[in-house]
Write a structure and sequence with these properties.
Elements (H helix, E strand, L loop, with lengths): L7 H5 L10 H27 L3 H25 L4 E2 L5 E2 L2 H9 L2 H11 L2 H6 L7
Antiparallel strand pairs: 1-2
Helix pairs in contact: 2-3, 3-5
Length: 129
């Protein structure tokens, strides 16, 4: 126990908050936006006309990748700063958690993870989606 440091556990649990102005964070934001554009094009096309059989397997794999990336984006939002109504960038994890979970964006982000899986149980004609 000679090498034990009292603050060691606390330093392991210290949460790192990413500034919303961080260039890497801004570059990451481009990915979900691009994926949203893809979803906005492929989902209505699939519901209207159906996808060709050879594309169903590829589409299923793409859907899984999209869902994982949207999930990562949602988790990342809990570690990203924001600007409050006074124009001050907030880095407090509890305030960030409260701010994110009490907005309508959180609801839509959670629904984006569910994606098309919601429609599978609603109507049997969506069985291929």
């Amino acid at each position: 126990m000679k090498n034990y440091k009292p603050g060691f556990c606390k330093s392991l649990l210290k949460i790192r908050i990413i500034s919303f102005r961080n260039p890497v964070r801004l570059a990451w934001d481009v990915i979900p936006m691009s994926l949203s554009v893809y979803n906005a094009m492929i989902i209505p096309f699939d519901f209207s006309f159906g996808l060709p059989i050879f594309f169903l397997d590829i589409n299923y794999k793409i859907d899984i990748v999209l869902d994982v990336l949207f999930l990562l984006d949602n988790v990342l939002m809990f570690f990203t700063s924001f600007v409050n109504k006074y124009g001050i960038e907030v880095f407090d994890p509890k305030v960030i958690f409260w701010n994110y979970t009490t907005t309508i964006r959180f609801v839509f982000d959670c629904l984006s993870i569910l994606g098309s899986y919601i429609f599978k149980g609603i109507h049997p004609s969506f069985k291929y989606f």
